[in-house]
Amino acid sequence: MSNRYAYLGPEGTFTEAALRALMPTASTGDLVPCAGVDMVFAAVRRGEVDGGVVPLENSVEGGVPATTAELVGGDPLLIAAEVAVPVEFTLFAREGTTLADVKRVASHSHALAQCRGWLAANLPDAETFTVSSTAAAAQAVAEPGAPYDAAVSARIAGARYGLAPLVEGVGDRTEAATRFVYLRRPGALPEPTGADRTSLVAFLPEDHPGALVELLNQFAVRDVNLTRLESRPTGDGLGTYCFFMDADGHVAEARVGEALMGLRRVCEDVRFLGSYPRADADSDPTPFVPRAGTTNADFHEAEQWLTRIRSGIVD
Amino acid sequence: MSNRYAYLGPEGTFTEAALRALMPTASTGDLVPCAGVDMVFAAVRRGEVDGGVVPLENSVEGGVPATTAELVGGDPLLIAAEVAVPVEFTLFAREGTTLADVKRVASHSHALAQCRGWLAANLPDAETFTVSSTAAAAQAVAEPGAPYDAAVSARIAGARYGLAPLVEGVGDRTEAATRFVYLRRPGALPEPTGADRTSLVAFLPEDHPGALVELLNQFAVRDVNLTRLESRPTGDGLGTYCFFMDADGHVAEARVGEALMGLRRVCEDVRFLGSYPRADADSDPTPFVPRAGTTNADFHEAEQWLTRIRSGIVD
Amino acid sequence: MSNRYAYLGPEGTFTEAALRALMPTASTGDLVPCAGVDMVFAAVRRGEVDGGVVPLENSVEGGVPATTAELVGGDPLLIAAEVAVPVEFTLFAREGTTLADVKRVASHSHALAQCRGWLAANLPDAETFTVSSTAAAAQAVAEPGAPYDAAVSARIAGARYGLAPLVEGVGDRTEAATRFVYLRRPGALPEPTGADRTSLVAFLPEDHPGALVELLNQFAVRDVNLTRLESRPTGDGLGTYCFFMDADGHVAEARVGEALMGLRRVCEDVRFLGSYPRADADSDPTPFVPRAGTTNADFHEAEQWLTRIRSGIVD
Amino acid sequence: MSNRYAYLGPEGTFTEAALRALMPTASTGDLVPCAGVDMVFAAVRRGEVDGGVVPLENSVEGGVPATTAELVGGDPLLIAAEVAVPVEFTLFAREGTTLADVKRVASHSHALAQCRGWLAANLPDAETFTVSSTAAAAQAVAEPGAPYDAAVSARIAGARYGLAPLVEGVGDRTEAATRFVYLRRPGALPEPTGADRTSLVAFLPEDHPGALVELLNQFAVRDVNLTRLESRPTGDGLGTYCFFMDADGHVAEARVGEALMGLRRVCEDVRFLGSYPRADADSDPTPFVPRAGTTNADFHEAEQWLTRIRSGIVD
């Protein structure tokens, strides 16, 4: 029996594109579109699917609040993979529509924001309408008696809803990308690959100058590089924050493991979110080489030395 | 002639409530609702208004991406004031509607998310509809032939659109709050009050382990407390981040000034976003007392000492 | 058969007093005076004695170079105990001598330096002579046809050489003290007592700004307090230093052990010098309480947590 | 009228050699030998001489306690220059003496310690005698009816006392060197040369974990490299230390000045000991290049930026 995967729908979203990139052999029947990020989490938590894909952060908008909220709260899930998908927007319309016909454009608010420059220059008189997703916009345009003339959507949405591409690349930032993560219920972690990422949420013990420096020092002294650090309210009012962190490396590595133990000891709480292969590993030709003193072998040697000196053996 | 203020509209939003709290003497005619955060910034930048109010962060959702994007990019504006507004949701309907009549509820997606528990418990069969703001939901409910029976909105929206409150306090988190900031064009800063906040964006020089620790050390060695730290993509793709920071204190203070100079020297770039009175100063009965060695007097004494020893005067 | 102990002689030195404080049941026949610190080390290394006592640091003069040189180089020995002895100087003379008779005073150069004020005020016309130790001064005064009239020595020297105390407390600093250590060949360490000290020598990897901070951070992140830090030339010319360190705690403790492993990984070399009970433990009424997060139990809990998350178990 | 200089005598010491290297045009009549380091300080303090030369540290023995004690206490003097002198020991005897004749060798205790290997190998049966300086040993050997056959001394001592060199290079470590400093009363500092050193003593505020790291961070955040760090008892008993530090750079530089101000603010007390040209500047072919962000120009730019943002000017 094949695996089933939930994702942030409807069909034709960038999230579906991400899921297909992560699970290239999955058939359409195995993909379960959900109406919200929270519903993807719920489906995975309840075991209705084997895993789920949601957006984590966008190069233009930053973190996706709904995803971080679910990762921080609720029953824990683990990130088992990630993928970065270029955010390439296409203007879709029904067959036969020309650009001059377009008076009403629908899309997700973020998509409209990221295409504002193109729209102002090329469709200065068109009205824009915000709908719940870029795919919903395509779906709406495809319906008989559609209230909109065109949709700004992911390329994948065109085929799904039978629309014709009017213009490709209507986004203002060509390098925009969204990072998606694949979530599943707790269980065996992906094996270390040598180019991995570890995600976690740390809750600071108290609000005093230097508390955050102390926390980051737990990583720095073990030479663990942080690639992302984002404070988030804990939900207990303004002024109380937790820190969402991504670090280079796999928790199976000694240096990462010791850093996490250090964090565990100095924080109110630490929620481990997973260790998984980095999506940019392929594009990065230089493999990560830990600084002298931070390899597993260095940790092992130091442990053996500690065992010796604790027994009074010095040399 | 009175001052005019832009804000994230339409009328009846939490942002209007924030603006009224910040400018209690402003009359309704001086308030200019805008359709988006970017339009508030644009109105202030073009000088069409004296200042503008936008949401900066929410205790449940975190930072407001549209606001941070505008603060980081475009012509610089300065934050001159802040206010925290409790997020209290009210279920509004047309006069005569009872709870049992409510089948279709409209609101902003964030508001619906924050009332999900209440809605599931009290209106399990109602459909929810996402519109562009909580005020737009109220406005839509108020129209003749409205497609929705009720709106989840700010209290201020009820009077504005002639709706009756069905239930107050329908949010799942009673302590939720949103922090709003008042923006204006560059010019003289608010005077230090003794309980101030300084906001800025720092662009890290390169991606190496400990770079962030070095940056935070610039604050720690001057005993400047950071109250918020949020990494944001710079917009140049995933993996390149800038850091949005709030620190206790006013740039006019020596310790804050020196920390900012240090940041300026070690960062690719630093964008100063303003020094302004803390919104929570009233509720915090204990005035901030800088640690020994970090008062203006301490800095002044150290400067005089440096002048002396540079002249070879030691005692 | 009883144990035998070497010490920095001749008989009657402060070092003999220290040895008697450390080994109260040792008989005089078990104590082996040596002419130099290096000879004490040599006697212990060759197994001629069970252990040896040497001065490590003095509250007025600082570290004792001969001792640190021997600890850093040569076959390693371990410090197994320490004791602090008040440096109380007594002016001794032959029976019948009065203060007015004293024209020539002998002592060790350090002792003369520490009594300079008293000598200037009370024996302004006396000449001072430097001999190899305070005990040697007493010995010389006791000899027939002695070239000196009086000796500044430890109290213990008077009885040893049959001299009479002329004046007690002739030192200029009444709180002066010397810290002595008991050395023995490598072997089982003293058990942790809850108030211990760990000594070591660290060799920095290279000379770059912040290298020392990185090294000290290895202690700070594990909340291990350093009580002494002294740079010493490595002997390979000026500008190349090693760091002699004393830390609170026993290497058997998890926090100390992890700090030492960290040091081992980032340093060129680390020489462990021993973990042993603190001499000031009795005088310090408040037992050391590790900060939350640094007890053995905290380390154990964090290790168990790490084992769980490495297996994908999160809760 | 020519300048007069005190030094640690008697004539023929390594200190005299250092003084001649520092003041090559001084005539012998201008050099005032003193019997102790404290007397050199006293002569300078009383204005009897223009300046004085004393040993500061030795590559084998470490810091010279008498010098650091005088630098830390008493009326302040400033270090105005430094020089490193190779410690090359020569065995001197009266004309006509052969190595086989040498039964009794005199020298300073440190010199004997540093020649122990040579003496054991080449004069295994000779007795050694400790006198107050290597020059005093030469002087004693030169006297009629001398109690010693040979002296281990500096080369300069041979000519002074009319002795013949028996063997040159009898030290066990050929790379040994001593660093001497030239002291004068407070007054205009030497101009910055681009390769300078700054010396100071810092008194820590209290004994808590990380206090020393905080102190060193004051240097690290301004990228000021420490070349020497030595804890010394303050003289108020064991366990209370001050830190003797050498840093690269001149107090006239912005980065050094700001670091010293930071130190001044966080320490109980800081005693500035001088900024002066590094003795090893000539031998180091690569001029020091401050890291980006720490040049005087960087500090100046940051100050101008601070002035602008304090006026609300952002760009």
From the spread of the alpha carbons, the general shape of chain A counts as elongated
Q: What does the main sheet of chain A amount to?
A: 6 strands, mixed
Structural Rg of chain A:
23 Å
Query: Strand share of the residues of chain A?
Result: 25-35%
Termini separation of chain A = 60 Å
Report the total helices of chain A.
10
- Oligomer state of the chains in this structure: homotetramer
Model regions low in confidence, pLDDT < 50 over at least 5 residues of chain A: none
Run of helices and strands of chain A: EHEHEEHEEEHHEHEHEEEHEEHEH
| Text of the CATH class of the domain at 191-315 in chain A | Alpha Beta
Overall strand count of chain A: 15
Q: Structural class, judged by helices and strands of chain A?
A: alpha/beta
Name given to the CATH architecture of the domain at 191-315 in chain A = 2-Layer Sandwich
Name the chain pair whose interface involves the most residues. Answer: A-B, 53 and 55 residues
> Which range best describes the helical content of chain A: under 10%, 10-25%, 25-40%, 40-55%, 55-70% or over 70%?
25-40%
- What average pLDDT do the residues of chain A reach? 89
